[in-house]
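Chapter summary example.
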Amino acid sequence: MKLKALPFGGAAGGRFDGPNLAVRLYCDRQYRPVAQMPSFVPHFNLSDEVNHQIVQSEIEGGVFLKDLPPATVLQIQTQHHLYTAVLQDDGSALISGHPEFCPQPVQVAIAGSTWGGSMLKRRFVGRGMRLEFSHPEYKTPIVTSSIQDIRELSSAARLRNHAAV
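The structure predicted for these 165 residues follows.
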């Protein structure tokens, strides 16, 4: 599953209908008009910068882990590494892909994604953000470089990867 937002206008799916702008977002292989999507309402207690980052995370795309069943396998491409995360029944994940922290699968708790500061979008993995997870051998959370892409491996791809090991 590749999650992405289509740009406004042009051949990518957005279009202008007179004064009304119609935009379609691509998510989980189906198009839905923005009117049918839940929309973010800026919160007056948050700064404009924070509200902007929240909206930007919705535009860039990502996935809430609570929306995925256990045993889902995600490939998370960051600027520097390709992580593989296998979601577990208890909300944890087996993660691998970093040569120092997790060269072999290790059970971690994925806290969510951050923009590099202390504000966390809980249990969300989002493009342009940094994945944050708790590793059993380290006191402080591990924060990755910026996430470039998120993919769900299909059953066939999981079998191929398993056979290659």
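To summarize the output: Helices lie at 48-60, 155-164.
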